[in-house]
Amino acid sequence: MKPVEPIFVAELFCRIHGELLSLLGNLSGDDWNKPTAARAWVVKDIVAHLLDSDIRRLSYQRDKAPMIPPESPIAPSAPEGYRDLVGFLNQLNADWVRAAKRISPRLLIEFLEVTGAQVCELFKSLDPFAPALFGVAWAGEQESQNWFDVAREYTEKWHHQQQIRDAVGAPALTGREWLFPVLDTFLRGLPHTYRDTQADEGACVAFIVAGEAGGVWTLNRESGEWKLYAGEGADAVCEVRMDQDAAWRLLTKGLSQEEAAVRIEIIGDTRLGKPILGMLAVMA
Q1: Domain 187-278 in the same topology as domain 2-173
Q2: What is the mean pLDDT of each run of 10 residues along the chain (284 residues)?
Q3: CB under 8 Å to 260, separation ≥6 — which residues?
Q4: Are 244 and 217 in contact (CB under 8 A)?
Q5: What pLDDT score does 90 carry?
Q6: Could you tell me the pTM of the whole model?
Q7: Best CATH choice for the domain 187-278 from the list 3.20.20.240, 3.30.1050.10, 3.90.78.10, 1.20.120.450
Q8: The CATH number of the domain covering residues in 2-173
Q9: If you write DSSP's letter for every residue of the chain in order, what string do you get?
Q10: pLDDT of residue 102
Q11: Structure confidence at residue 68 (pLDDT)
Q12: Closest CA to 265 of 277, 249, 279, 254
């Protein structure tokens, strides 16, 4: 068991963008209107959302354009702050997707060819340990370093592309090089998810993800807080076991808590295993 280390995915982000363009270029006309796991969004809506993410990133971070403020101030430290932030982002997303319905699939691809390449160059230019433009809120961070912000963006690019692949029956990108960084990033949210879960000092909860892209992560109770480690600690009071498919779907709203409970095995103190069923590594 050792402390978790930063995740560097700027180069991988560029490669997965290439996979996205290849995927979109092979879609049929019907494919663009197929339903996806992203609730009310069809394939074309997800593609439009990915374009919006690129545009906002380039505008706000590279070009220093002022961000659109919410109608009412959001206090991140307030109990309702996270909920208000999610509501604001959901409205931004919905506004864009609705407007993008007038854009043709061909134009969406052409726009993504331009914006995606520019985001790749932006990410490669960043000091990974400098303050990020956005904190990773689902991990409880108001301020993050660039490596974590970029890794979070990689998980967005990966899981939305996987939703498209699921919808159209395209081969999944679930090999270790693609999916392990997603899971490793997602599980950085465990300490925040468990922040209100009490346990004895020194108690360990192991999270074991089976599959080619899987691994083992451990929460250890230290000085009244949970700290995350890579690897399995000795004498864990609880083990949470799942396969890699269940893991990424649970953490991106692809499984309900009831569906996840059937696919996840909790061994030992079940009270310490159940918080994972409510965990999300997306803003929701």
Answers
A1: no
A2: 96 97 97 93 97 96 90 65 77 91 97 98 98 94 96 97 98 97 97 96 96 97 96 91 96 90 95 94 70
A3: 242, 246, 249, 250, 277
A4: no
A5: 80
A6: 0.93
A7: 3.30.1050.10
A8: 1.20.120.450
A9: -EE------HHHHHHHHHHHHHHHHT--TTGGG-B-SSTT-BHHHHHHHHHHHHHHHIIIIIS-PPPPPPSS---TTSTTHHHHHHHHHHHHHHHHHHHHTTS-HHHHHHHHHHHHHHHHHHHHHS-TTSBPSS--GGGT-SS-BHHHHHHHHHHHHHHHHHHHHHHHTPPP--SHHHHHHHHHHHGGGHHHHTTT----TT-EEEEEEESTT-EEEEEEEETTEEEEEES--TT-SEEEEEEHHHHHHHHTTSS-HHHHHHH-EEEE-GGGTGGGGG--SS--
A10: 97
A11: 83
A12: 277
Considering only CA atoms, give the Rg of the chain: 19
State how far Cα 167 lies from the chain centre.
19
Residue type at position 144: S
Cα-based distances in Å from 239 to 206, 218, 232, 272 = 5, 9, 10, 9
Cβ-Cβ contacts under 8 Å for 175 (sequence gap 6 or more): 212, 213
Domains of the chain, residue spans: 2-173, 187-278
